[in-house]
Amino acid sequence: MELKIKALSPKVGRDFPAPHFATAGSAAMDLCACMDEAITLAPGQRCMVPTGIAIALPSPAYVALVFARSGLGIKKGICLSNGVGVIDSDYRGEIGVGLVNLSQETYVIQPGDRIAQLMVTPVLQPQLQFVQELDETERGAGGFGSTGR
After folding, report:
1. Is the pLDDT of residue 11 over 80?
2. Residue 72 backbone phi and psi in degrees, to 5
């Protein structure tokens, strides 16, 4: 498949890396902060970081998902404020990355920093069938923690 990317800022690909796969085995592309000045995130604070790009997915059969970078989350406590960002196939605006500082320390996002990952994946839109009963399983309705540690 082909993903069309529009640079909304002249800095993309010049001053800051364009979205790219870091290695041949990468499942997602790195997204960089595209801004003129650093953003300081205090503990517990949220912000929206621009990426300077927009994309055009080829059809409703695809979705782009924005994930946190594991190193930022584990080492620094910087995570996506909405868990996972969903970019629908008909969205053409700038991709913004909502970040939250879950640590006890201030964190500074510098222009050009890798802030998230973008993955494109197929979408299944199921036909909904309302029923009176669901089939039985061994787990049943057991919820959080019901299968052990």
Report:
1. yes
2. -65, -40
- Enter the tokens of residue 62: 């695809």
pLDDT tens digits, 36-76: 999 999 999 999 999 999 999 999 999 999 999 999 999 99
Cβ atoms within 10 Å, residue 117? 21
For residue 145, is pLDDT > 90? no
Question: Amino acid identity of 12?
Answer: V
- Write the DSSP string, the chain: ---EEEESSTTBTTTBPPSB-SSTT-SSEEEE---SS-EEE-TT-EEEEE-SEEEE-SSTTEEEEEEE-HHIIIII-EEETTSSEEE-TT--S--EEEEEE-SSS-EEEPTT-EEEEEEEEE---PPP---S-----SSTT--TTTT--
